Amino acid sequence: MQKFTSLEALVAPLDRANVDTDQIIPQKFLQSIKRTGFGDACFSAWRRDPAFVLNQPRYKEAQILLARKNFGIGSSREHAPWALRDYGFRAVIAPSFGDIFLNNSLKNGFLPIVLAESEVDQLFYDTASFPGFKVRIDLDRQTVSTLDGTKTLRFEIDPFRKHCLLNGLDEIGLTLRHADKIRAFEARRKTQFPWYF
Amino acid sequence: MAQTLYDKLWDSHVVHVEDDGTALLYIDRHLVHEVTSPQAYEGLKVAGRKPWRVDSVVATADHNTPTDHWDEGMAGVRDPFARLQIETLDANMREYGAKVYFPFLDKRQGIVHVIGPEQGATLPGMTVVCGDSHTSTHGAFGCLAHGIGTSEVEHVLATQCLVTKKMKNMRVSVDGPLAPGVSAKDVVLAIIGRIGIGGGIGYAIEFAGSTIRALSMEGRMTVCNMAIEAGARAGMVAVDDATIEYVKGRPFAPKPPFWDSAVAYWRTLKSDLDAKFEREVTLAARELKPHVTWGTSPEMVVPVDDVVPDPDREKDASKREGMERALSYMGLKPRTRMTDIKLDKIFIGSCTNSRIEDLRAAAAVVKGRRIASSIRMAMVVPGSGLVKAQAEKEGLDRVFRDAGFQWREPGCSMCLGMNPDKLEAGERCASTSNRNFEGRQGAGSRTHLVSPAMAAAAAIAGHFVDIREWR
């Protein structure tokens, strides 16, 4: 997995609640058998509208997406974080995320950050008010801060997930360190509930 | 300490817990399909890993398989990208194996969430995962079942475990008898309307109460199927006689001498009387009516005798804006009566509503009638080859065909529009599926979610009708 440590980047505001996975990547792009190459598919239906926020030149270099509540609700398609990543985003900030989308993101070095609704509101305001508005994300300190240093927002992340992201760890490799435990569990289960095997 | 059903299922599968509560959860059943698995098998191969336990895997091709031209075999899959995914699954099954694989064209092939229970491959007390968000369906059997992403598919293949954290407990209780014409689909649409599409984020939902108890297993699957549309990855129902009766005698269900001990264990799979839930929601069944969605998210739903809501009456600015965008996308005006909305196409199918009881309910409505001349196309897509065979045995295919419906081969079909079954831009569809997102059934498609009987009645009338008044 690609590491995520810190990022200082332009913020693109997507001011819509309940952005579902089918908008992030429509179904017609799910026919690939590869993990990459989904950048063009990202928000492809909405990007046909010239006024759509990602078509505005001022957000062209954005690597941080600012979104509203329930971002990534819907399908389990990991193609959603793959598409955002391939498009050029490394992180998304929102008040809440679809559970499966959140998990999928964390496995791809793509950081979903949950902030309070009021904090997200303020960031939307800042993004609209100051062309070229950037923030700095520091995963180790779990902060999102403005570059002028006036504002630092703290976010929560599971220590285990954070550790994996900071070090770009292969989760399967980590789990397999517990292979003996898994085997022992499995043997017990097989004795107790043989009908599941 | 008193435990919820979810607590019990969780505790019985924890292999290891990190200091922060992140756990390794053992997975009993891994359902695999062609769209979200190729990258996972490729990942295994690249890393030189082998599947941990292939006999936990039950696989089928369902998402992008065509529902016609089956007589042409693989050549019937006109889309080369779809064909490549189907052939890739075939190849992965040949190389790695599975407990059982129902390939494209097999008479037991079907939607993965229909065939798991149908085969007895979904059993009470299991953990069930699949690279598909509607895996929550299997929770109807007193399982912990939820969707996972492709990296997790690879992780489960390689380790038989999922890295996850415990969710919170929510109980949704529905009590009382349902009025005639009000189905499991209406119950779950009403629940989603109540708690919203994000209301279940971070929760596992147990559906309880006398209304849920009175539902058939197929009805319970419909309800659990759409837990994810309320944001909850997992939905579940406690085990009772109906669960055990349904499972008994299915191909992969336990046989003697294991059956009795399995049943004895399964009977413990219910929440303790004084178990604590972080959130409780209650609905009265007698107040429930047939429901129809009007917008672009399943929470945008009203009873069929209501009107399209007016955004001007919504105080929350963000909600109002969402409603306005949805109405514009759907081509609807506020305060239009739902029964005045005319349809172009009808889709009866999907992992939500494609089982035999769904087809019977729809057939009872259309029997002896014709679809309205204004309906461009109405189709029935059975959930599996076995559902299709059963329906044909009962003569339901004739009922549908005589009414002007197309009778198709099984698969996910127009629920997500990955195969050739799509709506054209602007077309309006009464659909028994689970998502009405923008573009869900094809670019520019307009979806209204309803029950099978409501979809059938809409096909005959050409517009929505209140099924309670259907004669």
Task: Give structural notes.
The complex is a heterodimer of chains A (197) and B (471). By secondary structure, chain A is α/β, with parallel strands linked by helices. Chain A has eight helices and seven strands; from the N terminus they run βααβαβαβαβββααα. Chain A has one domain (6-196): Aconitase, domain 4, CATH 3.20.19. Helices cover 34% and strands 17% of the residues of chain A. Chain A has a seven-stranded mixed beta sheet. Chain B is α/β, with parallel strands linked by helices. In chain B, 31% of the residues lie in helices and 17% in strands. Chain B has 15 helices and 19 strands. Chain B has a five-stranded parallel beta sheet with strand order 5-4-3-6-7. In chain B, α2 (38-47) packs across α5, α6 (184-195) packs parallel to α8 and α12 (356-366) packs across α14 (396-403). The mean pLDDT of chain B is 97. Classes of the chains: A alpha/beta (197), B alpha/beta (471).
Question: What is the percent of helical residues of chain A?
Answer: 25-40%
Uncertain segments of chain A of ≥5 residues (pLDDT<50)? Answer: none
> Could you state the oligomeric state of the chains shown?
heterodimer
Radius of gyration of chain B: 21 Å
Strand sequence of the main sheet of chain B, in spatial order? 5-4-3-6-7
Task: Give the helices and strands, then pairings.
The complex is a heterodimer of chains A (197) and B (471).
Chain A: E1 6-14, H1 21-24, H2 44-47, E2 64-67, H3 79-87, E3 91-94, H4 99-106, E4 111-114, H5 117-129, E5 134-138, E6 143-146, E7 152-154, H6 159-167, H7 171-176, H8 179-192
Chain B: H1 5-11, E1 14-17, E2 23-26, E3 29-32, H2 38-47, E4 57-60, H3 80-96, E5 100-102, H4 112-119, E6 127-130, E7 144-147, H5 150-159, E8 161-164, E9 168-175, H6 184-195, E10 203-208, H7 210-214, H8 217-225, E11 234-236, H9 241-247, H10 259-266, E12 279-284, E13 291-293, E14 301-303, H11 317-330, E15 345-348, H12 356-366, E16 377-380, H13 385-393, H14 396-403, E17 406-407, E18 428-431, E19 446-449, H15 452-461
